[in-house]
Specification:
Structural class: alpha+beta
Number of helices: 2
Helix content: 10-25%
Order of helices and strands: HEEHEEEEEE
Number of strands: 8
Radius of gyration: 25 Å
């Protein structure tokens, strides 16, 4: 019997791999998970920045819960952002049409969204919305 074989003929390397590989993967996943969660991807559509499901630590850092609240039922209306507005949607869905474009994009619960000052849109609330919002001075 060689150095790398057990009494039943299975290699020690295989046994070690079966024991150590799950431990190694668990360690790697645990170490990388916080970094992955803090690197939410921000997309930009027609000048609007959208971050889907930002971390609670980011929301806390921004002070979102201290922002004003707005609620709206399903409706469709034009809107001009007279200041840069950052919002965090708590509930609902909105379809946004940017001025001069037939294309739209959707934002909804869990999205952190930034609209630039001066942007004109058609705001179509497709599911009742509740949001926190902050207007930059």
């Amino acid at each position: 019997m060689g150095l790398w074989a057990t009494s039943n003929g299975k290699s020690l390397i295989t046994a070690a791999t079966l024991i150590l590989l799950p431990l190694f993967l668990s360690f790697v996943i645990t170490r990388l998970r916080p970094q992955i969660q803090d690197q939410n991807i921000v997309t930009e559509v027609s000048g609007v920045k959208i971050e889907r499901n930002p971390s609670q630590s980011k929301l806390d850092q921004l002070g979102v819960t201290a922002w004003r609240t707005w609620e709206g039922s399903p409706s469709k209306f034009p809107w001009t952002f007279t200041a840069k507005e950052t919002m965090f949607l708590l509930d609902g869905k909105v379809k946004v049409y940017c001025d001069g474009s037939d294309e739209s994009f959707e934002i909804g619960a869990g999205d952190l969204v930034e609209f630039p000052k001066g942007m004109k849109v058609i705001w179509e609330v497709t599911q009742a919305v509740k949001k926190h919002y902050y207007l930059e001075k």
